Amino acid sequence: MTVKGREKGGAVPQGVVGRLPIYFRYLSELEHQGIERISSAQLGKALDFTAAQIRSDLSYFGSFGQQGYGYNVQDLLKQVRLILGLNKNYSMILIGAGNLGKAIACYSGFKMQGFEINAIFDIDPHLVGNFLEGTTIQHVDKLEDYLKENHVDVAILATPKNASQSMADLLGKSDVESIWNFSPAHLTVPDNVIVENIHLTDSLYGLVFRLNENREIRKQG
Amino acid sequence: MTVKGREKGGAVPQGVVGRLPIYFRYLSELEHQGIERISSAQLGKALDFTAAQIRSDLSYFGSFGQQGYGYNVQDLLKQVRLILGLNKNYSMILIGAGNLGKAIACYSGFKMQGFEINAIFDIDPHLVGNFLEGTTIQHVDKLEDYLKENHVDVAILATPKNASQSMADLLGKSDVESIWNFSPAHLTVPDNVIVENIHLTDSLYGLVFRLNENREIRKQG
DNA sequence: TAGATTGTTAATCGATTAACAATC
DNA sequence: TAGATTGTTAATCGATTAACAATC
């Protein structure tokens, strides 16, 4: 089934893509609380968006509300789930089983949503052979062969900075569709590979910039 | 010393704040490689931005380049470092010493940049008393008293979803200036507290959305 | 000097918001 | 029906880019 908005031609703007998971998360909470209906105004208030933005975002994909009523929480949740593609299963591999890699592998947040880590690789001989969340850590030398024999939707990259581009090159030559990059490097990849970055230090530096901005403002009145 | 752009009145746009750390990271690399000069065109090519955008971003804060030459890498790096506020030290605390909290505490990326975790709290009695990166894990009951006696620039929140808002409330009542939130919750805090979110699942869901978008496009030609 | 590249202005593009007819 | 709230259009706002005079 094709979702309405996709046919409109243009790709969905980044801003919208970034907000969809926020809607999904909050709607899940509401459903969990047994709340049946919600209006765009209420959603906006809870999530610090304008009501218009929420309606506009959703209208990329269809008409899910009802005048005078708002949205049915369960229905809308189902729709957003479908829009995000969370009705499917995704095969992931993890490259880099250090502290961060371990934390990601153990992170319970997405296990229930059809994401599974099917293989884990590391270069450290002390880690190779160990179990992590029920998966044996393999030497990274085995990665190339693994990629030939298995389809991977998402490769999680939690390697040190200096290793990440060469790993990305390897992944780029395979049929891996996307990289979830936790390493502090700007990856160069083929056009058809999607990269989503989690840059921890960038995030912290941005925070600190705004912190200092705040201090300036308070100082000046 | 006040940086030029700040006086212009308006706050620096989010987009610019988001790109500054990327410039910083890449310039650090260039300096490390011993490269002396770079033009906005070269920077743009390496980082997938337009040259105009880079010049425009930098011009918020001053004139760091030279016509016909470009930018001196060391100089520009120093300036960006100053703009971000990385010449100062920042006192951090970590709340939640689970897998993710541990990984953050051990993450080497920001240790060298003046960030220090001075206290760690958790609610799990099995963790309390343990050492993590040279710091004893305290029971979260001690947090309130700690906040009265110590100034905290950044509180790192790595708690489960259901605990994070109550922690944020506690932090909001103290003089904590900012929260680096790793929990999958939308925090409500006083106006003067800055929140920077790392929402792992949101990031993954956004990735998956684009992955499916990509598949649609390839299918249709 | 000639070539290169900045910082900035004006033009363009895109995203957000306000407003409202449609209608539950 | 009257009140509420949608989906969408038009207006606004802001961010990006192209172009260029200034100048190293």
Structure description:
Two copies of one chain form a homodimer. Chain A has helices spanning 4-7, 14-32, 40-47, 51-58, 73-84, 99-106, 143-149, 161-173, 200-220, and strands at residues 37-38, 71-72, 90-95, 115-122, 131-132, 135-139, 154-157, 178-181, 194-197. With 221 residues, the first copy, chain A, is of the alpha/beta class. The first copy, chain A, has two domains: 4-83, Winged helix-like DNA-binding domain superfamily/Winged helix DNA-binding domain (Arc Repressor Mutant, subunit A, Orthogonal Bundle); 90-202, NAD(P)-binding Rossmann-like Domain (Rossmann fold). Chain A has a seven-stranded mixed beta sheet. Chain A has a two-stranded antiparallel sheet with strand order 1-2. The longest helix of chain A is centred in the C-terminal third of the chain and has 21 residues, at 200-220. Chain A is globular and about 60 Å long. The termini of chain A are far apart. The model of chain A is unreliable at 1-9 (pLDDT under 50). At the A-B interface, α2, α6 and α9 of A face α2, α6 and α9 of B. The first copy, chain A, binds a DNA duplex (24 and 24 nucleotides) through residues 13, 15-16, 39-41, 50-53, 55-56, 58-59, 63, 65-71.
Structural Rg of chain A:
21 Å
- Main sheet makeup of chain A: 7 strands, mixed
The top-level CATH class of the largest domain in chain A is Alpha Beta
Q: Which fold name corresponds to the CATH topology of the largest domain in chain A?
A: Rossmann fold
H/E topology pattern of chain A:
HHEHHEHEHEEEHEHEEH
Overall geometric form of chain A: globular
- Number of separate structural domains of chain A: 2
